[in-house]
Write a structure and sequence with these properties.
30% helix, 13 helices, eight-stranded mixed β-sheet, eight-stranded parallel β-sheet
Length: 469
């Protein structure tokens, strides 16, 4: 006996068609028109869209930043993901300087053990290749790829904490090219930014607003160009995370025209929030929007939407890095450089992109599936995820395109005391969510509640496919 989803419209990255979907065990057994329901439990999906569960490849759960950790651990974070329609995440294992990658991996597997509620994988964020010529770290990269960690993140920002120099980045890219692994890059010129930050603080400019002003679009564009150029020198594939503005986008597009193997993502907050509207420099509450890269002027949004539509940008991720306003962001009350960087978005990613993307005519439903489900699974080597097809994992999202929802901190699943989208009314929301065939969310009868067992999520070993290019 299986579960038959009947009378819904199956939306794939390349087509939409009214079809039924049969789940048997943890996989999709059959997709077709008017499937026989005899002996199966039937889920009625009339008026609903049947999509792959969302894949969010950029999250920071239980992440150390300064003297605190991000507010969502693997339980609250993955439950919030599921409530919003996401059934797979890729989190960042953050190597601290002086640690080995093995120590880092062990730390993050302990953080997730018995807590993850949907399937997950890890990127390795590298800050240290070890002593001497770095051969120890380069050998560890081979071990990581063998264990299914096939993407490596490098920070070009946060000097003294996370930032790597061009030499380390070049060595890692050389090795990644040989391993067919993917290099994920936080592209900002951290050295230049640090000088600007110090100058602002010396002038008494301490409010959250100045965080955004200290990190210019040009610093992101320069680093984007440099990262792609270095990768191109060794034939590596590079993936620029959280691209925020049209100047950085221009560098990406230019380098791709020159033959570089480069991909990039953006995030919902860069598409719908702006410096003028949300960080005008009037109150401490603007600390809610301190993340990096920072909010940009509204003029950049049109270019980002166009790039999503034409494929220049490949993925929309959440960059979920939640820090509470009352007791975490407040660490930088009198110095914006001490405000933990990040915002909560894992629960609202699909709502925001559907309402402001699909409903507003920027992207089609099929492109929505491509950006949020299919492309991240393909780029990051998870062939069982991101597609409604026979033999794939039964990670299925029933989406209500006409469902009205108001985003409120008081009702969200994330362990936060605010929402970046507080009070926003959106049209389009997750109705039911299946993770490997199990109904884990039913927002039609028990809104905002996770129905599965804590710790049911599995670690996914990913293929080394260099971004699918």
């Amino acid at each position: 006996m299986g579960t038959l989803i009947k009378n819904g419209t199956v939306v794939r990255a390349d087509s939409s068609q009214k079809m039924d979907v049969l789940i048997e065990g943890e996989t999709i057994a059959k997709v077709g028109a008017a499937l026989d329901d005899i002996g199966h439990s039937v889920v009625e999906a009339t008026g609903l869209l049947v999509m792959p569960g969302g894949v969010d490849m950029h999250t920071h759960l239980d992440m150390p930043f300064g003297c605190t950790n991000s507010a969502d651990d693997y339980t609250t974070g993955t439950q919030a993901a599921a409530v919003g329609g996401t059934t797979t995440i890729i989190d960042f294992a953050l190597q601290l300087q002086g640690q080995t990658m093995r120590q880092t991996l062990d730390t993050w597997l302990k953080k997730s053990h018995g807590k993850a509620c949907v399937d997950f994988s890890l990127h390795m964020a590298v800050t240290d290749l070890g002593p001497g010529d770095g051969s120890q770290g380069l050998h560890e990269m081979e071990e990581m790829v063998a264990e299914g960690i096939t993407s490596f993140k490098l920070f070009m920002a946060y000097p003294g904490f996370l930032m790597v120099d061009d030499g380390l980045m070049f060595k890692l890219m050389q090795k990644a090219a040989k391993l067919n692994a993917l290099c994920c890059i936080h592209a900002e010129n951290g050295s230049a930014i640090d000088i600007v930050v110090a100058q602002m603080l010396a002038e008494g400019k301490t409010e959250p607003h100045f965080h955004a002003l200290s990190r210019s679009t040009k610093s992101e564009a320069e680093a984007t160009h440099r990262a792609i150029a270095l990768a191109d020198m060794v034939g590596a594939t590079v993936y620029i995370v959280h691209l925020s503005n049209q100047e950085a986008l221009g560098e990406l597009e230019h380098m791709r025209r020159c033959g570089a193997k480069a991909l990039a993502e953006t995030c919902p907050h860069y598409l719908v929030l702006s410096l003028e509207e949300h960080m005008p420099g009037k109150s401490w509450e603007e600390a809610k929007f301190v993340f990096t890269p920072p909010l940009r002027e509204k003029k950049h949004q049109e270019s980002l939407w166009a790039a999503l539509a034409d494929g220049s940008l490949s993925v929309v991720s959440s960059d979920h890095a939640p820090f509470r306003l009352a007791d975490q962001k407040s660490l930088g009350r009198h110095n914006f450089s001490k405000i933990p960087n990040g915002g909560p978005g894992i629960e609202n990613r699909l709502q925001i992109l559907w309402h402001f993307g699909v409903n507003a005519g920027h992207i089609a439903p099929e492109k929505f599936v491509e950006l949020c489900c299919t492309a991240p699974a393909r780029i990051f080597g998870m062939p069982q995820k991101g597609v409604i097809a026979e033999g794939k994992d039964a990670d299925i999202l029933l989406w209500g395109p006409s469902a009205n929802y108001t985003i409120l901190a008081a009702t969200q699943r994330m362990a936060m005391d605010y929402s970046m989208f507080e009070g926003w009314k959106v049209k389009g929301n997750a109705a039911k969510v299946f993770s490997r065939g199990e109904l884990v969310v039913d927002n039609t009868t028990q809104p905002g509640k996770f129905l599965g067992a804590t710790g049911r999520g599995r670690f996914l070993k990913r293929e080394a496919n260099a971004g699918g290019l």
